[in-house]
Design brief:
Layout lengths: L44 E6 L5 E6 L4 E5 L16 E7 L2 E6 L4 E5 L16 E6 L5 E6 L4 E5 L16 E6 L6 E5 L4 E4 L16 E7 L2 E6 L4 E4 L20 E6 L6 E5 L4 E4 L39 E3 L9 H10 L2 E4 L6 E4 L4 E2 L7 E13 L7 E4 L19 E10 L16 E4 L2 E5 L2 E3 L15 E4 L7 E4 L2 E3 L7 E2 L5 E4 L3 E4 L2 E3 L2 E2 L20 E5 L3 E5 L2 E3 L2 E2 L6 E5 L5 E5 L2 E3 L14 E4 L5 E3 L2 E2 L1
Parallel strand pairs: 19-20, 20-23, 21-23, 22-24, 23-25, 24-26, 25-27, 25-28, 26-29, 27-30, 28-31, 29-33, 30-34, 31-35, 32-36, 33-37, 34-38, 35-39, 36-40, 37-41, 38-42, 39-43, 41-44, 42-45, 43-46
Antiparallel strand pairs: 1-2, 2-3, 4-5, 5-6, 7-8, 8-9, 10-11, 11-12, 13-14, 14-15, 16-17, 17-18
Length: about 625
């Protein structure tokens, strides 16, 4: 065993010359449920390591227990641990493994053979990773301070044990020739010793620290705790979850493993969720289901009484008798037509109900109409029809006043629901739009709900709202959107000519603790339409037009939306210049406006009173 005091050659740290980072979606949690912290004693995943054959993998947990996937078999563990000692990494063998603790102690299981450890040595930085020699008769241990310790046939080529690192070391990859090695620190800096330096992230600003590095082809692969993947090798980049921060809000990525042929890799979260990428992913890796979560769990905006969920503990009517088969399209349409407080009893599992006709509210069945899915129900338009419709000025739905455009009922609340695959294409009444929900008049409130893969007409200067289209709210009061998600993943975004998520004319909105991501406004020619164009293409996430109205966004995330014309995130035009836009404690990132936007406000086109008010928020 040896530890370097002086590096043999200068450690190298430079930025990567090329990098591509992909993305996938969010892991769903029950809609309407609040995040619950794991119990303090619950073991978490600390390492995912392939077997030597690549036909299986071991999952090492923080309590030292080991679970196997594929051909990997647990051979025992954890070892008896002393005070302040914990198992931090492992080294598989043909039919066993070695477990390593932060104090450098080694325990052998199955056919594994220990070649020595650091028992009795006081370490400046605990052991964080280990790598085997080519012949399998030795190994290198890596300390958090960059100290490298060699055992058996492993050769010592240097370390940073006598240096101060900007960030702790955490992953070591030997060179193919078996002599040298490199290791990575949390800031993405790579230190190479008698091994080719292929690049690093040391000069780049990372959203989250790098937590590991593994061999990949002729080079190496890094992963950050937010799921960002960085490749420095001759093998392909297949994707990452780095662009979807909600995916790692409650549980960070802690490890990465890659197939021996370089045709797949898999990310492991601390809670055990697995996210594989690549064409060669083996069947024994079961990916965590990818659906968007609900709302922004880190949103801290206060919700006023008008925006809060409605108590549905005493429903007027219930859809279903406890079995999935009882929850039909006809039952939903009939219940919505009768109004009142509506809940579902469809069994213990989540259910998707594909509507065979649009559910329509009758204006004389209120005044309050609440549809509560309990976090288990998805209402689908099947890609064929709008899902939910309310219009106080539609005589077919019963006129109840002589001022239908400004009446206080029905007051519609949708909560704890998913609206999926709604399609209002070709619906021209009242100007169209509203792939999932169309509402003119009364009041509308949306709480703890998801809107995914909804569409409306792809062109048109002023129609919009693939998810929601709202007109004529009572007394100019706002539509509340609370703790809800629109889009959420690249494959579940909502798409329309304007307003990929939300669209309105003359309507105020309050959007609290919500997520609007991967929505698109795909029309062409803006509004009024340029000559020779069909018009539209503004407001990737939100499209607001009219005279006096307000938009308040607080505690929310609006990212990766696209507008072909103006306002990748928000298009806001108050024709009489009296409307106001306020953004508080929110993040608006990567919302390209491919045609135009207001200078100094990335992703926003604004014509209103003064300038947008931006408080403690990021617009980039």
């Amino acid at each position: 065993m040896r530890k370097s005091q002086v590096p043999r050659r200068r450690p190298l740290r430079v930025a990567a010359s090329a990098l591509v980072v992909g993305m996938i979606g969010l892991v769903a949690s029950p809609i309407g449920a609040q995040p619950v912290a794991a119990a303090a004693a619950a073991p978490s995943v600390v390492k995912l390591v392939l077997t030597p054959s690549g036909a299986g993998a071991y999952i090492l947990r923080s309590d030292g227990t080991v679970a196997g996937l594929g051909n990997a078999t647990s051979h025992g563990g954890p070892p008896a641990l002393g005070a302040g000692e914990r198992v931090t990494t492992m080294l598989p063998t043909a039919n066993g493994y070695l477990l390593f603790t932060n104090l450098g102690r080694v325990s052998a299981f199955g056919d594994a053979v220990s070649h020595g450890d650091l028992t009795g040595l006081v370490l400046n930085g605990g052991i964080v990773d280990v790598a085997a020699t080519v012949d399998g008769k030795g190994y290198w241990m890596l300390g958090a301070d960059g100290g490298v310790f060699t055992f058996g046939t492993a050769q010592f080529s240097g370390s940073t044990g006598n240096m101060h690192l900007n960030s702790p070391a955490n992953g070591l990859v030997p060179d193919k020739d078996g002599r040298g090695y490199r290791f990575v620190a949390g800031d993405g800096g790579v230190f190479a010793f008698d091994a080719p330096f292929l690049g690093s992230m040391g000069a780049s600003k990372l959203n989250k620290p790098v937590v590991g590095m593994i061999p990949y082809g002729n080079g190496y692969l890094m992963v950050a705790s937010d799921g960002g993947v960085f490749t420095f090798a001759d093998k392909a980049f297949y994707g990452s979850i780095g662009a979807t921060p909600l995916l790692t809000t409650l549980s960070p990525v802690v490890s990465i493993a890659a197939g021996p042929a370089g045709d797949w890799y898999v990310l492991a979260r601390a809670d055990g969720a697995l996210f594989p990428f690549g064409p060669g992913v083996p069947s024994w890796i079961v990916p965590t289901p990818i659906t968007p979560g609900v709302g922004n769990p880190n949103g801290g905006a206060a919700v006023p009484p008008d925006g809060q969920a409605v108590d549905t503990s005493h429903p007027t009517r219930t859809i279903g008798n406890g079995s999935p088969a009882s929850c039909t399209s006809a039952a939903v349409v009939a219940a919505v037509a009768q109004g009142g407080i509506i809940t579902f009893t469809c069994g213990p599992d989540p259910i998707t109900i594909t509507l065979q006709q649009t559910a329509k509210i009758f204006n004389d069945t209120g005044p309050d109409i609440v549809i509560d899915g309990g976090g288990k129900v998805t209402l689908s338009g099947g890609g064929q029809r709008r899902i939910l419709y309310m219009d106080t000025c539609d005589p077919a739905q019963v006129w109840t006043t002589d001022h239908c455009q400004n009446q206080d009922h029905p007051r519609l609340t949708v909560q704890n629901l998913t609206f999926a695959n709604g399609n209002s294409t070709g619906e021209t009444y009242e100007g169209g739009g509203g792939g999932a929900i169309f509402d003119r008049g009364g009041r509308l409130k949306i709480v703890s709900s998801r809107f995914v893969s909804n569409v409306c007409d792809s062109t048109g200067p002023d129609l919009g709202g693939a998810a929601v289209r709202a007109l004529d709210q009572s007394q100019g009061l706002p539509v509340y959107v609370v703790n809800s998600t629109f889009g959420g993943t690249p494959s579940t975004g909502n798409i329309c000519s304007n307003g990929g998520a939300l669209s309105s004319i003359g309507v105020s909105w309050v959007v609290l603790n919500s997520v609007l991501t991967f929505n698109q406004a795909i029309g062409q020619g803006a509004n009024p339409a340029d000559p020779g164009t069909p018009g539209g293409g503004s407001g990737g996430a939100i499209y607001n037009d009219g005279d006096y109205f307000t938009l308040r966004i607080a505690g929310s995330i609006i990212e990766d939306n696209i507008a072909r014309e103006g306002g990748g995130a928000v298009f806001f035009v108050s024709n009489n210049r009296t409307g106001t836009l306020t953004i508080e404690d929110s993040t608006l990132l990567r919302n390209p406006s491919q045609g135009f936007e207001t200078a100094g406000y990335k992703g926003i086109f604004f014509l209103g009173l003064g300038h947008p008010t931006v408080i403690n928020s990021t617009l980039q």
